[in-house]
Amino acid sequence: MTRQDTATHYSIDDMKALIETMQIYKKDNSGKGITRIAYGEEDEAAHLYLAGLMKEAGLEVYRDGIGTLYARLPGKDRSLPAVGTGSHLDTVPQGGAYDGALGVIAGFYALMQYKPQQLKRDLELVVFRAEESSRFGFSCIGSKVLTGKIDKARWEQNRDDDGNNFFEVLKSLGYQHDNLDNCIIKKDRFSAFVELHIEQGKRLENDKKTIGIVNGIAAPTRFSVTVNGHADHSGATPMYQRQDALVASAGIITDINRAACTEAVYGTVGTVGKLNVVPNSMNVIPGQVKFSVDIRGIDTESIQRVVQRLNNSVEKAEKDFGVSIDVQPISAESPVKLDDSICQVIESLCQKHDISYMTMLSGAGHDSMNMAPLYPTAMIFTPSVAGISHHPDEFTEFSDIAVAADLLAETLGTLANQ
Ligand SMILES: [Zn+2]
Predict the structure, then answer these.
(1) What CATH number is associated with residue 113?
(2) pTM of the predicted protein model
(3) pLDDT tens digits for 231-243?
(4) What CATH number is attached to the domain comprising 284?
(5) DSSP of 335-370
(6) Helix (H) or strand (E) run with residue 20 in it
(7) Which tens digit of pLDDT belongs to each residue from 211-220?
(8) Is residue 378 one of the residues assigned to a domain?
(9) What separation in Å is there between the alpha carbon of 91 and the centre of ligand 1?
(10) How far is the CA of 99 from the centre of ligand 1 (A)?
(11) DSSP states of 97-131 as a string?
């Protein structure tokens, strides 16, 4: 792919160096990997560093009331909606160097491949805040604020490890905190939005593809299930007198797995990843079990069939084991369909440059989920080695990154001339 001769000559090697520089912004005493928690000291420093770098590069830089970083490259007609790109810089504790940061850095690289007024529309990079749910218990908070999905009452309830909620943390850092309405971006701000991200799965690697064109994002439907039985002595209680909460749970968990396997053809998955057994003792019949259910997919009806199976299984377990079961919905976000015409632009560029690609769904949530209902949105995935993410071993080959970053640049350029 031919790179434009830009005023700043921002090269693929400059991007590689920036990927390494960003890894300096992590908590030192937190063990392996990158720990850059949302609104933590290192996250703030990373944002300020990038803001400075982008200003120096000649972009129009702006930070909104909650510290979202925007950098714009002006096009010929400034009255037109811009073409956007971006991702996040915050990580989970002991996360990797690529989740989020890669989309930000590649986005910056992409903008730098063009001169001011070279394209018809502005290009704009957005660095979203607090994408990971590790600190506040909610994911994609920043992109929710920008798109007007501010859930003040719920967000106030959740607190970080220091006992502060999202708004208190904003206040302590001198950000806007009482009314975030002026952080909401206009409906005509973007004509298109494209986020580059690591896959966080193994499909690209397994299929030996360099690029994933993401045409939909699966959303989690989650429940917290509490099974109340009766804790009794494991030696003195005959089998017919038991109300074993764990045995009842085991049947439900197996049913969720079976239901999701049946729905696999629709891309639906179901997981019970957290189990809390009370009293969790070798010689006591489990009296209470709490577990989480996480169902994801892109097909709402398919997800609903798994939920129905969960409900049927709960009813059956209550009868069979004499337990009472409470199923609390935690979240039910709608799956998001991404924009076909942007996917087609990316696909034709892949064909033009002979890049191996596949069209796929994203199993993980991203800021693009919040952008998609307002702006035509798509995502470009790069392979994750061994599918590892949210882990110090998270890695993407630089040769793959280079292809994806150039593809992003050309995609944005094509969309900005439309
Ligand atoms: Zn991410």
Answers:
(1) 3.40.630.10
(2) 0.83
(3) 999 999 999 999 9
(4) 3.30.70.360
(5) PEE--HHHHHHHHHHHHHTT--EEEEEESS--THHH
(6) helix 12-22
(7) 999 999 987 8
(8) yes
(9) 8
(10) 5
(11) SSTTHHHHHHHHHHHTTS-TTSSSS-EEEEEES--
Return the residue matching tokens 């003040």. Answer: 152
Average pLDDT of the residues in 110-128: 97
Give residue 8's pLDDT band: very low, low, confident or very high (50, 70, 90).
Answer: low
Domain count, the chain: 2
Q: Which helix or strand (DSSP H or E) is residue 403 part of? A: helix 398-416
Distance of CA 166 from the midpoint of ligand 1 (Å)? 19
- Shared-domain flag, residues 158 and 63: yes
Q: Residue 403 corresponds to which tokens in the numbers above?
A: 């292809």
Report the separation in Å between the CA atom of 131 and the middle of ligand 1, taken as the mean of its atom positions. 7
Q: Say if residue 181 is in the same domain as residue 61.
A: yes
Beta strand segments in 146-254, E: 190-198, 211-217, 219-228
Q: Is residue 53 a part of any domain in this protein? A: yes
**φ, ψ for residue 129, nearest 5 deg:** -95, 155
Q: Is 80 part of a structural domain of the chain? A: yes
How many Å lie between the centroid of ligand 1 and the Cα of residue 126? 14
Burial class of residue 337 (count of CB atoms within 10 Å of its CB; 0-12, 13-18, 19+): middle
State the distance from the centre of ligand 1 to the C-alpha of 100, rounded, in angstroms: 4
| Domain identity same for 256 and 356 | no
325 vs 217: CA distance, rounded Å = 31
The number of CA neighbours under 13 Å toward the Cβ of 267 is: 17
Domain check: are 372 and 294 in the same one? no
Q: Considering 317, 332, 347, which residue would you say is the last residue of a domain? A: 332
* 83, two tokens: 């073409």
- The phi and psi torsions of 175 (rounded to 5 degrees) equal -90, 170
- Domain boundaries, position 327: 219-332
Single out the residue of 155, 181, 217 nearest to residue 373, CA to CA. 217
Bridging pattern class, strands 211-217 and 288-297: unpaired
Cα(102) to centroid of ligand 1, in Å? Answer: 9
Return d(Cα 101, Cα 19) in angstroms, integer.
8
Indicate left, alpha or beta for 322 from its phi (over 0: left) and psi (-120 to 50: alpha). left
63 touches 116 (CB < 8 A): no
Secondary structure string (H, E, C) spanning 298-320: CCHHHHHHHHHHHHHHHHHHHHH
User: What are the tokens at 291?
Assistant: 């577990």
Looking at the structure, tell me whether residues 22 and 89 fall in a common domain: yes
- In the predicted model, what is the mean pLDDT of residues 342-371? 96
Is there a domain that residue 328 lies in?
yes
